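Regression test case RT-17, inverse folding.

Input:
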C-alpha cells in the first residue's frame, strides 16, 4: 500500500549499492518469480493473511516467500509481511484481542540481544529494547526452527529469524517523517506520532536496516 512503503529500507539498500525494484501487488502488478530475485522485502497493508477473497495476490505472495526462503535468498517481512512470512513457513496467524498502534518499543529476548541485526552492540546502542512504531492487530505463532528475537506485553511474537538471512518484524523501524506524514491522517482517534518519536525510530531503524543489508549480503548470513 502507498502509505506502507519501504521507507528507509530503500536508502539502506541504495547505500550498499543494491538495485531496488518495487512491486505494487495492490495495483495488480504481477508477482515476481523467486528465480529472478536476489532478495525479497515484503511490506504491510490493512488487509490480513486470510483475506484472499478480496486480495488475489495474498496467496501468490505467500508462495513467493516460501520459494525465496527455500532458495536461500535474504528475506525481510514487515508487519503483514512478517505475518505472511510466518504463514509461508507453516505458522498460524491469528487476530489478537486489541489493536497495537502508535509509538513504542519492543523488548529483545536473550537471543535478540545477541542478534547481529537487532542486538544493541550491533546497533551501537545500549539497552535491550528497540524503539519502533506499531500498527496491527493480527499476530503469528513462531515458525518451527525459528529464533524468537523480540516481544511486547500485548503481542509476545514481535520478531523472529530463520537461518541466517530471513527476518520477520511485526513492528516498523523503516518509518521516517515522510512516511509518518502519510500515516497520520489514517490513524485511529487519539493516536499520534510525535515528530521526536518518529525521528528516534528513523535513526535506530537506519542502523537496524543497515545491519540487515550487511547480513543479507554476507555469503551465509548468521548462524541460527
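Golden output:
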Amino acid at each position: 500500500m502507498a502509505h506502507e512503503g519501504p521507507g528507509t529500507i530503500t536508502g539502506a539498500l541504495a547505500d550498499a549499492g543494491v538495485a531496488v525494484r518495487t512491486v505494487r501487488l495492490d495495483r495488480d502488478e504481477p508477482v515476481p518469480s523467486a528465480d529472478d530475485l536476489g532478495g525479497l522485502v515484503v511490506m504491510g497493508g490493512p488487509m490480513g493473511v486470510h483475506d484472499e477473497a478480496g486480495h488475489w495476490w495474498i496467496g501468490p505472495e505467500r508462495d513467493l516467500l516460501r520459494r525465496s526462503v527455500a532458495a536461500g535468498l535474504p528475506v525481510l517481512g514487515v508487519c503483514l509481511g512478517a505475518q505472511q512470512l510466518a504463514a509461508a513457513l507453516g505458522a498460524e496467524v491469528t487476530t489478537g484481542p486489541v489493536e497495537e498502534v502508535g509509538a513504542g518499543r519492543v523488548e529483545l529476548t536473550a537471543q535478540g540481544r545477541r542478534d547481529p541485526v537487532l542486538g544493541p552492540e550491533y546497533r551501537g546502542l545500549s539497552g535491550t529494547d528497540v524503539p519502533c512504531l506499531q500498527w496491527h492487530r493480527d499476530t503469528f505463532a513462531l515458525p518451527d526452527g525459528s529464533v524468537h528475537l523480540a516481544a511486547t506485553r500485548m503481542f509476545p511474537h514481535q520478531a523472529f529469524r530463520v537461518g541466517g538471512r530471513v527476518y520477520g518484524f511485526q513492528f516498523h523501524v523503516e518509518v521516517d517523517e515522510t512516511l509518518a506524514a502519510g500515516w497520520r491522517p489514517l490513524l485511529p482517534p487519539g493516536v499520534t506520532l510525535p515528530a521526536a518519536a518518529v525521528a528516534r525510530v528513523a535513526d535506530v531503524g537506519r542502523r537496524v536496516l543497515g545491519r540487515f543489508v550487511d547480513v543479507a549480503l554476507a555469503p551465509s548470513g548468521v548462524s541460527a
